[in-house]
Amino acid sequence: MIEVAGVEKVFSVRRKAGRLRRVREEVRAVSGLDFTVARGEMVGYIGPNGAGKSTTIKMLTGILVPSAGRLRVAGIDPFARSGTGGAAGGRLRLARRIGVVFGQRTTLWWDLPLKDSYELVRRMYRVPDATYRANLERCVELLDLAPLLDVPVRQLSLGQRMRGDIAAALLHDPEVLYLDEPTIGLDVVSKAKVRSFLREVNAERGTTVLLTTHDLTDIEQLCHRVMVIDHGRLVYDGDLTGLLAAGEGERMLVVDLDRELPPIDGVPGARTVKVAGPRQWLAFPAEASAAPLVAAVAERYPLVDLSIREPDIEDVIARLYAGGTATPVAGA
Ligand SMILES: Nc1ncnc2c1ncn2[C@@H]1O[C@H](COP(=O)(O)OP(=O)(O)OP(=O)(O)O)[C@@H](O)[C@H]1O
Questions:
Q1: Which of 24, 129, 223, 310 could make an SS bond with 44 (beta carbons 3.0 to 4.6 A apart)?
Q2: What residue owns the CA closest to ligand 1's atom 16?
Q3: What is the pLDDT of residue 103?
Q4: What is the pLDDT of residues 214-269, one digit of tens each?
Q5: Separation of 135 CA from ligand 1 center, angstroms?
Q6: Phi, psi at residue 62, to the nearest 5°?
């Protein structure tokens, strides 16, 4: 569904060099990018700030023209010079097949009630009546939009607006959905709602999803596959377990005992890294299961409560490079 081969994007920027002088510099945002995504896959696309994620998505939507390489989405080359309509024709045809949600911006009309924005989307994409009604009904139900339909977009909370944006991106039945930070700034309840909706859309419709996020839980709950980009290059392509192992990521088992005790020891596969009163922190490899650790602690210690802290995705990626343990993908 998505094919990217040898794609590069170089920006030419002017930089101050002294009081009056300006020099032209090249910023290589994406370099030698190669990957494919099959129909129905849900893939996480992650990397540190400035890595090239948004630039990739903008090229895949036809907003930015690559400096080199080839890309096709749903069989369409958005920049093909031949065929009906030339390059603009490719972009237009592609627009009908994809949906895009940028978490930091809205595609809805600020002063209009949500339902009027949807009506405009219907007309812009010329969505057939029956399809529009069925899709809207489904989104309204699954994303709890009924009480919001008459509210102007500017009065919606961030979580409400995000749900509204996701619905807008799906009304024309896109085959590919790009989501750029869809859960950023949302509370726990809204995040859960958005994630379960996306899972359902992917499972029921077979919609292909490419998701950029800084939230590891998004990846864990939604994506079997994750691609990591750093300095414009793909440096990992595989499952999350493999990524955490490559980054030597650790998870933390936080246990509350019924009283203050010396550091827990003798639990295979875990080491106690912190003690504060009756609470203790045990680090263990991110790819390992927590169940045997919990059982081992519960057997020997007066356990009252426990929780598991996931490693921060930025830390995992930072470690991935610092340790040079990344498993390079073919061609990276
Ligand atoms: N229009 C532009 N002109 C010049 N440089 C740009 C432009 N857009 C992006 N860049 C540069 O390209 C690089 C990649 O940026 P991009 O926005 O793709 O990163 P990102 O991975 O999406 O980062 P973030 O997580 O911060 O959103 C950065 O160095 C950025 O400064």
A1: 223
A2: 52
A3: 78
A4: 887 888 889 989 999 988 999 889 988 777 766 666 788 999 999 999 999 989 88
A5: 34
A6: 90, 5
pTM: 0.78
Q: Are strands 176-180 and 208-212 parallel, antiparallel or unpaired?
A: parallel
Give the residue, out of 27, 63, 227, with the most ligand 1 atoms within 8 A of its beta carbon, to mutate for a pocket test: 27
Token reading at 50: 């400035």
Q: How far apart are CA 158 and CA 178, in angstroms?
A: 19
Closest CA to 264 of 219, 321, 303, 236: 303
Q: Which helix (H) or strand (E) holds 46?
A: strand 42-46
Reference 45, options 27, 62, 30; nearest CA is 30
249 lines ligand 1 (CB under 6 A): no
- The residue whose C-alpha atom lies closest to atom 5 belonging to ligand 1 is 11
Report the C-alpha gap between 136 and 147 in whole angstroms: 14
Phi, psi of 150 (to 5 degrees): -95, 5
